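Predicting holo structure, FE2/S2 (inorganic) cluster bound.
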Amino acid sequence: MAEAAKTEVIKKKAGPAHPSGDKRFKLLEVTMKRHQFRSDALIEVMHAAQELFGFLEVDLMFFIARYLKLPPSRVFGVATFYNLFSLRPKGEHTCVLCTGTACYVKGADALLDAVEKLAGIKAGETTEDGKLSLVTARCLGACGIAPAVVVDGTVKGLETPDSLVQQLKGWLPNG
Amino acid sequence: MAIKTLTIDGQLVSAREEDTILVAAREAGVNIPALCYVDGLTPVGACRLCLVEQQGTNRLQAACATKVQEGMEIVTNSPRLHEYRKMILELLFAERNHICAVCVANNHCELQDMAVRHGMDHVRFEYLYPQLSVDVSHEQFGIDHNRCILCTRCVRACHEIEGAHTWDVSGRGVRARVITDMNQPWGDSDTCTSCGKCVQACPTGAIFRQGSTVAEMERDRSMLQFLVNAREKKQWNV
Ligand code: SF4
Ligand code: FES
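Done. Tokens:
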């Protein structure tokens, strides 16, 4: 009941839906409304958008630009400035490699080499079949177990190229 | 309007308090090298070519973005500054593909002028030779990223004077590029009014008028300042 009332309110407050009829646009609109469509809420709004859609598609960024009255080039500029925003769909699995100082000293570059070779992609890319995304991050705060990686949300430490390749190769055709 | 008195290269200079060191120096006949600064646009201090020494501090100041202060003692030229400026220029050259001999802006290029002025006859850094695109989808203009130095003059001219904000910068570091709208071809941009202010603003051959061939691309930079004055000081008698 409460849920239904809430949807009702949302329906009333939000303006015309996105022509695609995709409900997520409506949810995003509610978020923007909560920020009074202020242009300085751009980063928060993009976070919300990425959470809803998984990544920031061009169409989605135009939608945000229109509502926040921001030039498209500014929205694109901000979206590409921060590593956290992704303009392409993420792979089914993700491997984040820490390249912070401690992990670097403990051989993060060898891990990166090994994964790049195994998957045939560079850091920041996703395999063509959409199976694996490879991301690097500067310090996960897990220096005690350097070199640290995060595989599908689970932090793992003291990795070697071999141990990491073992974990990932099942997802890759040439693994 | 308060007046400040300062010394620039040993010369006593008086300036309006809202003036920057760069403007005050120029009025006193001292031409401080600058690339990202252009009259009529808000300074951003991006290129660091205008760095000057200030007596009493070891920190160098960007002359284009630092306001004058009473009693300042500024040195605009020294072996140290010369060396830094030359290094900045070399880094700019190494970062993209600046090949003057085939450039539309040859002989009308501020980057080239600066290199000549500083006697930059070779580059000590490894060239990056990035693979960059040229976008000629716009019916009158084109952008060649090989020659862009990311001064953001186009971005500011488009935002501050034309008010269209077609341009912005995407990415960062070595991957930074100027973009039009949603990083789409310039010709597909909905916001571009084809006013050509970015063409006037660009210091190099990066933004050009189509149909210009080698060394043909001259510009009228004073147009930007003229427009700003006309608007802000209501200089038209109509
Ligand atoms: S295109 Fe020209 S004006 Fe724009 S940032 Fe590059 S060099 Fe500067
Ligand atoms: S002219 Fe001052 S930093 Fe570029």
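The pocket of iron/sulfur cluster (ligand 1) is lined by residues B 148-154, 178, 201-204, 206-207 (CB under 6 Å).
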